[in-house]
Amino acid sequence: MSAPFVSIIVPCYVASPKQAELLDETLHTVAGQTWKDYEIIAVDDGSPLDVRAITARHVPTTTLRQANAGSAMARNTGIDASRGQYLVFLDADDLLLPPALEAGLRCFAEHPECGFVVGRREEMTYEGDPVPWGVAAMPRETRLYNSLLGFDWYIIPPSSAMFRRDAVESVGGFRDPWGADDLDFYLRVARQYPGWCYEDPAVTRYRRYSASSSRDGERMLRSIRIVYERQWPVVQGDAAGEAAFRRGLAQLTEIFRDCLGENVEDRMRAGEWRRALRSARLLASESPRRLIASTARALRAAMGQTLRRT
Q1: What pLDDT, on the 0 to 100 scale, is given for residue 133?
Q2: Where do the H-state alpha helices sit in the chain?
Q3: Measured distance CA(15)–CA(176) in Å, rounded
Q4: What integer pLDDT is reported at residue 300 of this predicted model?
Q5: Buried b / exposed e across 164-191, counting CB within 10 Å, b at 16+?
Q6: Which residues lie closer than 8 Å to 194 by C-beta, 6 or more apart?
Q7: Furthest CA-CA distance within the chain
């Protein structure tokens, strides 16, 4: 058999009937692609539920299983097993719009110097409904490293991008700082290769969550600091790179300190005192002001609930 043009790699962790339903919906959208020369590599990352029962309904899908190691390692497993000249990393709850593969390949044909191309995303609620907000325009430059490092723009979700295999292999695939592994990967690819962004057509639909692993303040603070620590030797001595480094790290630190404050509140309200205390200790060292505000809000909410019961 000749190698398919595109390999679509789907890391899966299915622990509930709802997650099984979302994976099935995701794979159905791949079947609707206008470009048909593709393979799907579904990597079951130690799921409690039977992933093969879902993927078996979708051809051409190869399903691999590994012990739970996180999405970065699952993507690497998929890369190693794939045969395509181009790679798309599709999350198990997002939707690939019909022209996605064809549009990405056409963009590569027009810009063969690029290591990756990025199409526009649409967004939806967790339930799959339209959202009332728009999506910001993508950058027009092709050297995207500083834009990504400065967090001026970000590739969301991974399936909005298509990568040349040699670009992925040249950076060694994904590394795992457990949280910001996609940013780590994008930075390494964008450092070596130009990319091209296109607004039309939209290529993927991104499911927004009110709570997800990216809202875990403790995990994400640790992860983004690992990612930026790895990038400092790359930009040191370059004024524009150093400015982007400081800008991006400062923005992301503030975002995830806010998340940590939300974690304190949510865990106090839920009576998860041990987890709340752990988050509070970290927040006290990161931002005492946020800790005071988060604790006060949680206590007010608890008092309000008590008064309503009485």
Answers
A1: 86
A2: 17-31, 52-55, 71-81, 100-110, 145-149, 165-170, 181-192, 217-235, 239-269, 273-286, 288-309
A3: 22
A4: 82
A5: bbebbeebebbbbbbbbbbbbbbbbbbb
A6: 111, 113, 114, 115, 142, 143, 144
A7: 72
**Residue pair 175/76 in contact by the 8 Å Cβ criterion:** no
In the DSSP assignment, the letter for residue 130 is B
Distance CA 219, CA 72 (A): 15
Instruction: Kindly state the tokens that stand for 237.
Output: 């001595």
Say how far apart CA 220 and CA 255 lie, in whole Å: 10
> What is the CB neighbour count within 10 angstroms for residue 224?
23
Q: Which residues contact 80 (CB under 8 A, 6 or more apart)?
A: none
Give the three-class secondary structure for 118.
Answer: strand
Q: Using CA atoms, how far apart are residues 251 and 55, in angstroms rounded to an integer?
A: 39
Closest to 90 (Cα-Cα) out of 66, 129, 121: 121
Query: In the predicted model, what is the mean pLDDT of the chain?
Result: 93
Task: Please determine, looking at this structure, whether the domain spanning 6-207 carries the CATH number 3.20.20.140.
Answer: no
110/115 Cα distance (integer angstroms): 12
Instruction: Give the list of residues 6+ apart from residue 12 with CB closer than 8 angstroms, or none.
Output: 23, 42, 43, 44, 45, 47, 51, 74, 92
Q: What are the pLDDT digits (tens) for 292-306?
A: 998 888 888 766 666
Instruction: Tell me which residue has tokens 């991008």.
Output: 161
Where exactly are the structural domains of the chain?
6-207, 215-309
Kindly write down the DSSP assignment for every residue of 203-229, as one continuous string: EEEEEP-SS-GGG-HHHHHHHHHHHHH
The residue whose two tokens read 């988060």 is 294
CB-count burial class (<10 Å; 0-12, 13-18, 19+) for 239: exposed
